[in-house]
Every structure is written in structure tokens, then in C-alpha cells.
Amino acid sequence: MINLGACPSYSLNIVVVNYGLGSKVISIAKESGITGGTVVLGRTSSKNAILKFLELSDCRKEVVFILSKDNHEEIFLDSLGEKLELDTPGNGFAISTSIDRVVGTHYCKNSNEMLGRRDGNMGNYDSMFVIVDRGDANDVVELASEAGASETVILNGRGAGVHETSKIFALDIEQEKEIVLILVEKEKTQNVCELIRSKFEIDRPGKGIMFIQSVDRVCGI
Fold it and tell me: What is an annotated GO biological process for this record, any one (predicted)?
């Protein structure tokens, strides 16, 4: 029988920073009592028309995924915001979302147990993950931004460990797919979702997939 009360609640922290700072984020996490993290490459697209014309609108980013206990989350995000000056435009942002279930962390003494999520959600934002055909990500970003999205970042569909993580919800993640992370205020989520669904025909098999998570904390917005 799974005992959700045997282990502490966890959060998934997603940190978007300029290229080369992923290791610094991991270091700050360790100083905050958090071990481990995964860094993947990403990019953002500038709205500047001149940069787009010159094909210089893409800016390389690193996206760090870190699992933390709830009692470490606030310390980590506060330290991150201060040391990386996330309040300064262009330096990046961080969000945390509640985790429903986690298996495989060394913090859980019994390997048959799972970690449960905390109760409640105090955030005013949602995070949206949109998987679309390669080449459509910039259009997703533009559409979401026009609809009021606060931040967007495009993740590479392939990277280290691709053979172990080649599918998300039974959809192959290969070079022909792109993943867009969108941060949006809750009252705008439905509109952004409907615009993307309609424009990119997400409902059609093989066209893509979109899922939404509530955000508990935001840093750098």
C-alpha cells in the first residue's frame, strides 16, 4: 500500500537563465540544501522586428529542472533571485509547481512509497507546455505573447538521454518536434489555450499536445 504521508511534499522548480548559467543554478540549489538537477538547452525569441529580419532574434537559454522539498523551495528561490538578479529584465525567471507523485528520489526511505503533493495553491500563474511540429514554436510564442503570456521559452526536443526519454504521453519527441514553455496569468490561460489549440489543431492526432500546471511561486517576473 502506498503511504503518501511517509515522505515530505515536493515541488518542481523550473529555472530559465542565460546560456552558461545552468551550473550556477545547480550550485545555488546545493547551497540551499537541494541536491541534483537537470539542465537542458532552450531559446527565447525576441519581438524586435529588426532582429527578426536579420535572423538574430533567437537567444540561447538554459532551462534547469530541480526537485526540492517544500521547506527548501523558498530558500532556494529567494537566493536564486538575489544572486542572479532575476528581477532585472532579461536575466531569466523561475517558477515552482506542486508535484502529485514522485518515485526514485533517495529522500524517500521506502522505495515502494511515493511522495505526495502539498495542499493548496497560492500562485497567480499557470505554466503551459506545448509540443508542436518543428518550425511552429516561434509562431506559438508569438501567438501566446499577443494573448498576454508573461514569459515563453522554447526547449530542444532532443538531448542527452534521448533513448530513455523519447516519449511524452506516447508522443515521440525527436528533431521534428519542439517544446514551448509558457508562463501565463491564470485569468488569461483559457484564452491562450484556445488560441493555440485552434491555430495548431492540437486536437488532431499527431499534431501535438498541450498540458497545463498551476504555479505555486514565481521569481523574476
Answer: regulation of nitrogen utilization
